[in-house]
Amino acid sequence: MSARDWIDKDFYRELGVSSDASDAEVKKAYRKLARELHPDANPGNADAEARFKSVSEAYGVVGDPEKRKQYDEARSMFGGGLRGGFGGGSGFDFGDAFGGQQGGFTAGGGGLGDLFGNLFNRAKSGGGTTARPRRGADVETDVRLDFVEAVRGATVPLRLSSPSTCDTCHGSGARPGSSPKTCVTCGGVGLVSRSQGAFAFSEPCRDCRGTGRIIDDPCPDCAGEGVNTKTRTLTVRIPAGVEDEQRIRLAGQGEPGRSGAPAGDLYVRVHVTPHPVFGRSGNDLTLKVPVSYTELALGTTLTVPTLDGVVSLNVAPGTASGRVLRVRGKGVQRRDGQSGHLLVTLQVTVPADLDDDARTALEAYAKATATHDPRPELTALVQKARQS
């Protein structure tokens, strides 16, 4: 494979995924294609064998986080510029760029040969990265709480179906009583190297499919994968004060790692059902209380609910509609042990119907207060507008 061939090659397209696909999506696509195209499943099919080789080569790069990062950076930097540089009269010396010896391009102090040498894992660099231990993937699930549970905290059971370490082979992939063998083709590296001119290229080993191990007698429960899908139940403590759409991280409860690597994390996304009466603003609870005009004008004592009982509030005579009264310590408990407040908003209600006695009383009140202007600023503007 020439350097230009590599620049033009789209490993993501080979796997049938987009360039922003997650690691899990890349892995899933590779496994599906590898099963379909493996030479054992297609004896004598040269096209399937060539396609399997291309897919394995692609996964050997984008299936490894470090190599994928280098590949993406290389495509971003040189995907367009180098295409025009080969045989196009540009005078670009690709050998200098890769050799990094005579003023060739450098990246971070090293020649491009360093970057591409790492990507293709030159034979002189030693062991490949495919067989390295890999941290397990993170898992996310959802849980719904009612409003009070979210404020006070709750313990909830979660039932999850996710990949877990196989209990039969304990992750080795081999039938109990047997063990995987080191692949003699790649020496356990998972990659085989070949040279073409000044370039050394690596590709996943066909015999072990890039794992560095040969399993002669696969585990019957996981088919040699070392993991299988299991349903498990976890008891999760949701802390007090959790908010809607907040994620809670449970370390080490995600997918198991490979080759002794740690497991991923479990993220629990919380959805909170709104309360019919209470609202929330940060660590404060909110409550809207309807009141009559006379209660605000003459003053009164209101009894209002909280999440753990009732409280009495004194409303002073002449209180305006929309006034917010604060009840200390009746909100959401904070991490420092203190609690937010309950904010009570007073809202005047207007009766839709009046009986004769009420109407007579209101008309008498209106007559008694006829000289009082409740909106002097607006009245002044109206008068000024009429005079102009």
UniProtKB/TrEMBL annotation:
It comes from Actinokineospora globicatena. Binds 2 Zn(2+) ions per monomer. InterPro entries: DnaJ (IPR012724), DnaJ_C (IPR002939), DnaJ_domain (IPR001623), HSP40/DnaJ_pept-bd (IPR008971), HSP_DnaJ_Cys-rich_dom (IPR001305), HSP_DnaJ_Cys-rich_dom_sf (IPR036410), J_dom_sf (IPR036869). It comes from the Bacteria. Its cofactor is Zn(2+). Keywords: Chaperone, Cytoplasm, DNA replication, Metal-binding, Repeat, Stress response, Zinc, Zinc-finger. Signal peptide: none annotated. The gene is dnaJ. It is found in: Cytoplasm. CDD domains: DnaJ (cd06257), DnaJ_C (cd10747), DnaJ_zf (cd10719). Residues 10-75 form the J domain. CXXCXGXG motif repeats lie at residues 166-173, 183-190, 205-212, 219-226. Gene3D superfamilies: DnaJ domain, Heat shock protein DnaJ, cysteine-rich domain, Urease metallochaperone UreE, N-terminal domain. Homodimer. This is Chaperone protein DnaJ. Zn(2+) 2 binds at residues 183, 186, 205, 208. A zinc finger (CR-type) spans 153-231. The J domain is necessary and sufficient to stimulate DnaK ATPase activity. Zinc center 1 plays an important role in the autonomous, DnaK-independent chaperone activity of DnaJ. Zinc center 2 is essential for interaction with DnaK and for DnaJ activity. Residues 153-231 form the CR-type domain. Zn(2+) 1 binds at residues 166, 169, 219, 222. Transmembrane segments: none annotated. One of its GO terms (biological process) is protein refolding. SMART domains: DnaJ (SM00271). Its main location: cytoplasm. Participates actively in the response to hyperosmotic and heat shock by preventing the aggregation of stress-denatured proteins and by disaggregating proteins, also in an autonomous, DnaK-independent fashion. Unfolded proteins bind initially to DnaJ; upon interaction with the DnaJ-bound protein, DnaK hydrolyzes its bound ATP, resulting in the formation of a stable complex. GrpE releases ADP from DnaK; ATP binding to DnaK triggers the release of the substrate protein, thus completing the reaction cycle. Pfam families: DnaJ (PF00226), DnaJ_C (PF01556), DnaJ_CXXCXGXG (PF00684).
